[in-house]
Amino acid sequence: MTSPFHLAFPVKDLEATRQFYRELIGCKTGRESDRWIDFDFFGNQITAHLKPEEVQAVSTNAVDGEAVPVRHFGAILEWQQWHDMARRLKEKQINFVIEPYIRFEGQPGEQATMFFYDPSGNALEFKSFKDASRIFAT
To answer: Is residue 1 part of a domain?
Structure first.
């Protein structure tokens, strides 16, 4: 059994964060206060804390010819779920940092990936593997 993870992160605006994660990503909300909101992030608990002064600029690192945001989080989705999300985000005209594409094509770590920012500039990556047993392949 896989244990769910918990991640807490700073945001500039709780209402914009609620709308983004609930309406665009599809997360259910959990407990909340006037300073934080819990989200069900694909079975994991993430908590957005209102702390505008803690929101940082994102640095990048070169991966497969792309400038990947170093600080990021996300989820590994089923293949079709990833493609459905990519289509929905394109329809909503999300501003991608890295457009949806297949990375490391033909290699052991081949994966579908996409990057974009939430309203506070937190980078998110969603990825998928056709063969989930290859997630940690070298």
So the answer is: no
Residues 66 and 60: their CA atoms lie apart, in Å, by: 9
DSSP string, 65-108: TEEEESSEEEEEEPHHHHHHHHHHHHHTT--EEEEEEEESTTST
Q: Domain residues for 104?
A: 60-134
The reported pTM is: 0.91
Contact 112, 102 (CB under 8 A): yes
CA distance 21 to 41: 8
**How many structural domains are present in the chain?**
2
The Cα–Cα gap between 130 and 18 comes to 31
User: What's the pLDDT tens digit per position in 93-103?
Assistant: 999 999 999 99
Per the domain annotation, does 98 fall within a domain? yes
